[in-house]
Automatic annotation (TrEMBL):
Keywords: Pyridoxal phosphate. The modification N6-(pyridoxal phosphate)lysine is found at residue 246. This is Methionine gamma-lyase-like. Gene3D superfamilies: Aspartate Aminotransferase, domain 1, Type I PLP-dependent aspartate aminotransferase-like (Major domain). GO terms for biological process: transsulfuration. The lineage of its organism: Eukaryota, Viridiplantae, Streptophyta, Embryophyta, Tracheophyta. One of its GO terms (cellular component) is cytoplasm. Belongs to the trans-sulfuration enzymes family. InterPro entries: Cys/Met-Metab_PyrdxlP-dep_enz, PyrdxlP-dep_Trfase, PyrdxlP-dep_Trfase_major, PyrdxlP-dep_Trfase_small. One of its GO terms (molecular function) is pyridoxal phosphate binding. Pfam families: Cys_Met_Meta_PP.
Length: 443
């Protein structure tokens, strides 16, 4: 096998006394294979470095060790001094760098077309660590008013009281409002979701990136709702965040996150002395990283089917007079924008929303969908092979005040459906239609 493809761990045993030169260049080598000119994320992923197993297995080995040995007494000092590191296959402790997690991180970087990435124990830990690295006490963030409830709570409650970091929330597609909210010399980050949770508002990533860069900001985009569908870094974003727990995992059995961006940022986040990831310690378990690395190769196939079914169901529900929110429908305010930004053949995403008017009607319809028609499950999260549904205002966005929900476009009867791909399309449509017929009979 080619040496460029096989990570020979024992090389370090004969190299510990070598003089290490050009550390910065070697740190960049840590992320080799991540940046690719391919516009299709699946093609970019396929071109990335493949890590073989220790004994020649087609799958990488799991490095489950918490700590790592050295052969020479002075090596630990040199590692802690930054002279030796994972770019030379030297590992200290798995809260810092772990070989298995590092390989999954390379895969994430390839997927998003960024120079580097590192994976974390949850999506919220990825968001928190990235923002703590990019902001200092007294700092300021401009963020979309339409965000996942946990992210909104982090910015509106936790950061101001615990970190002295404030946030101005704006209508993200009002570009003038975005620019006017930026405070010269204080604002450091422009933050938004590529496809908003749960309103499915699509952000104009290229235009927002231009505004942010003109003002010297780091543009951070949460792409959890639209992996493969959108590639924010290729559209101008600096940092891409994922809750890997969702579509990328696909099994509703893993909690994980990722920060994708420049190698300089990721290296700072993992710095032994002031790195937000290193020091706050939201470490991903190596066994989790291995499991996820085996799922990413078929993410493209899954996303295409999620998107296809969501579009078909949205179109059919619309014909039946149901109030549907889905960016694949021509009347969606950002339909043309998403078409212009989206990666070819991945559709418009696997999430659609139905507005039932009131929370009582929403709850009744979800009950019929699950308990009468077996269409899906009442549960939060998304990206599962079964359809998951929740009433956002009283669940995943419940951290937001009524006023904040209104500004975010979250109505009381809004049902978010993450469309699965189990069974046949017509089988699942029949179940959905069955529940709708019963609901209409009762209401």
């Amino acid at each position: 096998m080619a040496d460029t493809l096989v990570n020979v761990h024992n090389n370090k045993r004969s190299n510990e006394n070598d003089v290490v030169e050009g550390r910065d260049a070697k740190k960049l080598m840590l992320w080799s294979g991540a940046v690719d000119a391919e516009s299709d994320p699946a093609a970019s992923f396929a071109n990335a470095r493949h890590e073989f197993g220790e004994h020649g297995g087609v799958n990488m080995s799991i490095e489950a060790s918490a700590t790592f040995t050295v052969m020479e007494p002075d090596t630990l000092r040199r590692m802690f001094a930054g002279e030796l590191g994972p770019e030379n296959d030297y590992f200290v402790y798995s809260r810092h760098f772990n070989p298995t997690v590092l390989n999954l991180s390379r895969q994430m970087a390839a997927l998003e077309g960024t120079e580097a990435a590192y994976c974390t124990s949850s999506g919220m830990s990825a968001i928190t660590a990235a923002l703590l690295q990019l902001c200092s006490s007294g700092g300021h963030i401009v963020a979309s008013s339409t965000l996942y409830g946990g992210t909104h709570a982090l910015m509106s409650n936790f950061f101001p009281s615990k970190c002295n970091i404030t946030t101005t929330f704006v209508e993200i597609n009002d570009l003038d409002a975005v620019e006017n909210a930026i405070v010269e010399g204080k604002t450091t980050v422009l933050y938004f979701e590529s496809m908003a949770n749960p309103s499915l508002k699509v952000a104009n990533i290229p235009a927002l990136a231009r505004i942010g860069h003109k003002k010297g900001l780091t543009v951070v985009v949460d792409n959890t709702f639209s992996p493969m569908v959108l590639s924010p870094a290729r559209l101008g974003a600096d940092v891409v965040i994922h809750s890997v727990s969702k579509f990328i995992s696909g099994g509703a059995d893993i909690i994980a996150g990722a920060v994708c961006g420049p190698a300089s940022l990721v290296n700072k986040m993992m710095d032994l002395h002031d790195g937000a990831l290193m020091l706050t310690g939201p470490t991903m378990n190596a066994k989790v990283a291995f499991d996820l690395s085996e799922r990413i190769p078929h993410l493209a196939l899954r996303m295409k089917e999620h998107s296809h079914r969501a579009l078909v169901f949205a179109q059919r529900l619309k014909k039946l007079g149901v109030k549907v929110l889905y960016p694949g429908l021509e009347e969606h305010p950002q339909h043309e924008l998403l078409k212009s930004m989206g990666n070819k053949d991945y559709g418009f995403g696997g999430i659609l929303c139905i507005d039932m008017g009131t929370v009582e009607k929403a709850n009744k319809f979800m009950s019929y969908l699950q308990n009468y028609a077996q269409f899906g499950f009442m549960a939060v999260s998304l990206g599962y092979y079964e359809t998951l549904m929740s009433c956002s205002g009283s669940s995943t966005s419940s951290e937001m005040s009524a006023e904040a929900q209104k500004l975010a476009g979250i109505t009381p009867g809004l049902i978010r459906l993450s469309i699965g791909y189990i069974g046949t399309l017509e089988q699942k449509w029949g179940q959905l239609e069955k529940a709708l017929i019963k609901f209409n009979e009762k209401h």
